[in-house]
Design brief:
The complex is a heterodimer of chains A (289) and B (259).
Chain A lengths: L1 H32 L6 H42 L9 H23 L25 H23 L1 H11 L1 H6 L4 H27 L7 H14 L4 H21 L3 H16 L13
Helix pairs in contact in A: 1-7, 1-8, 1-9, 2-3, 2-7, 4-5, 4-7, 5-7, 8-9, 8-10, 9-10
Chain B lengths: L2 E12 L2 E12 L3 E5 L6 H8 L7 E6 L2 E2 L5 H6 L2 E4 L11 H6 L10 H7 L1 H5 L10 H13 L5 E5 L7 H16 L3 E6 L2 H7 L2 E6 L2 E7 H6 L1 H8 L14 H8 L7
Parallel strand pairs in B: 3-8, 3-9, 6-7, 7-8
Antiparallel strand pairs in B: 1-2, 1-4, 4-5, 9-10
The chains are: A mainly alpha (289), B alpha/beta (259).
Chain lengths: 289, 259
């Protein structure tokens, strides 16, 4: 029983970390540009596929580094050619745009890489379980946790300590004033968008090694990452981090006793937290790290 | 005298509502020009038009000899225009230090270190959040933030709004100092008399139309116009030149409503 709980707890943390990576990216874009990116899960899938196609040339490690960066650059291009055109328009435009984009990317993946699942092979060194009793603690999972910790720490340090990061935080509160202080907010938004999309790309590379690749692989993560943002409190990235982990662990632990409940529990959690704290666990005006 | 900023025939709208009608004004280099007018006259809209935040639908704006009518805000401010917005617009969730790290600094005498030397109160509150500051401290921070761009033209929108009289004195003293440092100033104020005391030129905006322009000295003599402009708030008060150090110190510690 203890092993079963530990097994599910580990699964929950891993799942929660994917929610966190997704939700942080969605949150960055939502907070600075007021765009809810429905295509975020598709950029995740693209990240996995890019790594798959690059690995024969660059090896796993090369693909691991380059794929998320390319996805970030793709995000930059998408922002500059499409997303930025709807910033000044009512919300429904950006909703429809990213919704449409999500179908386009999904079909692109189907066309290029096929409808069937593909494996993203990982180095053998990462593959083996650390012990027989804790068969679920593979090297890869520990690697995955470490990568997410490093990525999240780097993101928080960037936002907290660099001038560009400070301007992004300021912009989530008042973009007009940021531009009146000499900052090119168009560029700031583009960089921020690229950063958020790059995180989805990284999540895709990591997910590919865990569950393999398919054109819909990001879809199941989109809604939970929205929930993570709401539970954590819109505007607070620390809240998003906590929210992602909480719902990941809660749904995995629920499945120990009630396997059908693993999804329902997220919504129940969301309702309970919103009733108790309408702004979420850590929400306040203006984005905080 | 050369012209730092010139606007001609500005027509500005918010959506369908026409706010400014053929507004024109000039800001002379090295002088303080004040733009007066009753609440809702369109002063803030004029300033927002000048810095590109609410671009005019027609008209022409020239700043330091360049046509900036269609220039994005960040380029206008990067070109040497400091803008201190109405209501100070401090980033309430950021620390004082982070607020000062937002502007794109341009080379010049103003650096973050100099800000801390000039406004010791901000140095003391470096790690406090913007929302924890008093109104006076927020105003200092907002001005300091704009000064970090090392502007040649400083535009201020009602810097004295909601501040206690002693702090207003301090703010006006700072504005006078920026002129002494060689900056051109465009000052929007409700505080008509105090503003005219430090200004060289004045404009009066009325329902989106520029109704009067001339020297501040001429406007001061026009008691009737001043009464009309400021109504009941145009009471007697004015101020003597500077604050004593003790006064400044007392002020700095006086808590004040946050805007
Ligand atoms: N964002 C806005 N949308 C619509 N109307 C506005 C907006 N801001 C100001 N106004 C209107 O424009 C007019 C001028 O406002 P403003 O420029 O703020 O005047 P002032 O600064 O002189 O008090 C007022 O009638 C005000 O109601
Ligand atoms: Mg105003």
């Amino acid at each position: 029983m203890l092993t079963l709980i530990l097994f599910n707890l580990t699964n929950g943390i891993i799942l929660g970390l994917f929610y966190v990576l997704m939700a942080l990216g969605v949150s960055l874009i939502l907070n600075l540009s007021n765009v809810i990116n429905f295509a975020h899960g598709n950029f995740l899938a693209l990240g996995g596929y890019f790594a798959f196609s690059l690995a024969p040339y660059l090896g796993y490690w090369g693909a691991f580094i380059v794929a998320p960066i390319l996805i970030g650059v793709l995000g930059l291009i998408v922002e500059q050619t499409m997303i930025k055109r709807v910033y000044a328009r009512p919300h429904v435009y950006s909703l429809l745009l990213t919704f449409g984009l999500s179908f386009i990317i999904q079909d692109m993946c189907r066309t290029i890489w096929g409808v069937n699942g593909l494996p993203l092979s990982i180095p053998n060194a990462l593959n083996s379980p650390l012990s027989n009793q804790f068969f679920f603690l593979t090297g890869y999972r520990i690697f995955l946790v470490a990568v997410v910790i490093v990525a999240v720490a780097a993101l928080f340090a960037f936002l907290g300590f660099t001038r560009v990061g400070t301007r992004i935080r300021a912009g989530t509160f008042d973009l007009d004033t940021v531009s009146a202080l000499g900052i090119n907010i168009g560029l700031l938004r583009a960089l921020n968008f690229a950063l958020g999309i790059g995180l989805a790309g990284l999540a895709g590379v990591l997910a590919g090694g865990q569950i393999g690749l398919n054109p819909n692989m990001g879809d199941n993560l989109v809604l939970p990452s929205f929930i993570a943002i709401i539970v954590g409190g819109i505007g607070s990235l620390t809240g998003t981090l906590v929210g992602g982990l909480v719902i990941g662990v809660a749904s995995a632990l629920t499945s120990v006793w009630w396997s059908a409940g693993s999804n329902v529990v997220m919504y129940i959690l969301m309702v309970v937290i919103l009733v108790a704290r309408p702004r979420g666990i850590m929400g306040e005006e203006g984005m905080m790290t | 005298m050369t012209i730092a900023l010139e606007a001609e025939g500005l027509n500005t709208f918010y959506g369908k509502s026409h706010i400014l009608y053929d507004v024109g004004l000039k800001v002379k280099e090295g002088a303080i020009t004040t733009l007066l007018g009753r609440n809702g006259a369109g002063k803030t809209t004029t300033l927002r038009s000048l810095v590109g935040l609410t671009p005019p639908r027609s008209g022409k704006i020239t700043i330091f000899g360049k046509d900036t009518t269609h220039t994005p805000t960040y380029r206008i401010t990067q070109n040497g225009v400091g803008y201190v917005p109405e209501g100070r617009k401090i980033f309430a969730h950021l620390t004082v230090e982070d607020n000062l790290r937002v502007p794109q600094e341009r080379p010049g005498p103003w650096t973050i270190e100099r800000v801390y030397q000039t406004f010791p109160r901000l140095a003391e509150r470096k790690m406090n959040k913007g929302r924890q500051l008093s109104g006076g401290e927020q105003e200092m921070l907002s001005i300091a933030r704009a000064l970090l761009l090392n502007p040649q033209l400083l535009i201020l929108d009602e810097p004295s709004q909601g501040l206690a009289p002693l702090i207003v004195k301090e703010v006006f003293r700072i504005v006078q100092q920026t002129k002494a440092d060689g900056m051109s100033v465009l000052l929007v104020e409700q505080n008509v008399r105090a503003s005219l005391e430090i200004a060289d030129y004045a404009y009066v905006l009325d329902h989106g139309v520029m109704g009067w322009s001339g020297t501040a000295a001429d406007l001061v003599k026009d008691e009737e116009r001043i009464q009309a402009l400021a109504g009941a708030s145009a009471e007697e008060w004015s101020f003597d030149d500077t604050l004593s150090a003790a006064e400044t110190e007392a002020l700095a510690h006086q808590p004040h409503a946050v805007a």
